[in-house]
Amino acid sequence: MFVALDKVFTMENVLYLGKGALISLGMAILSLLIGLVLGVLGASAKRSRFFILRAIGNFYVEIIRGTPMLLQILMLFSVVPSIYTAITGNVLRINVYLIGIIAMSINSGAYSTELIRSGINGVDKGQWEACETLGLSSWQTMKLVILPQAFKLIVPPVISEFITLIKDSSLTSCIGAIELLKLLRS
């Protein structure tokens, strides 16, 4: 049996789907940018000489990468407002898109931490030694020599992470379903 596609692909439906695609794309771009900032901080923590920073970086990466994205979204949607209400007594209302972006950013930050750390570790050890021989400070070494080379190693996995974020943006629709069920109950 064939479905009449002319009734499905109306201009109104195509525009509706296009709007959804733009929202998903915007959420993915914003989440990737925030995630990269978190990734730089996480990679710096994991490469730190201080044990406590390494421990915090490892804890963040292991917990976030070890839990499903849907669970992270639902935790932010239900647990965080409940904790806020318990502490302040006020009801916290957060935009669904904002929750999605925050959850996707935190998740992307954990993956970006490992992408950036592995990109830096992928630069040949001889480059580090050459910088040390030339008398460059650790900041100059990182800024002028290591990061430009690591950037080439990091770009392909970051593109893959962006594609994953586009796909993961569909998980934020579960928040809308929960809101709909709450509305139907009341």
Automatic annotation (TrEMBL):
Residues 17-186 form the ABC transmembrane type-1 domain. Its main location: membrane. GO terms for biological process: amino acid transport. GO terms for cellular component: ATP-binding cassette (ABC) transporter complex. Pfam families: BPD_transp_1. It is a multi-pass membrane protein. GO terms for molecular function: transmembrane transporter activity. NCBIfam families: HEQRo_perm_3TM. Belongs to the binding-protein-dependent transport system permease family. HisMQ subfamily. This is Amino acid ABC transporter membrane protein, PAAT family (TC 3.A.1.3.-). It comes from Faecalitalea cylindroides T2-87. The lineage of its organism: Bacteria, Bacillati, Bacillota, Erysipelotrichia, Erysipelotrichales.
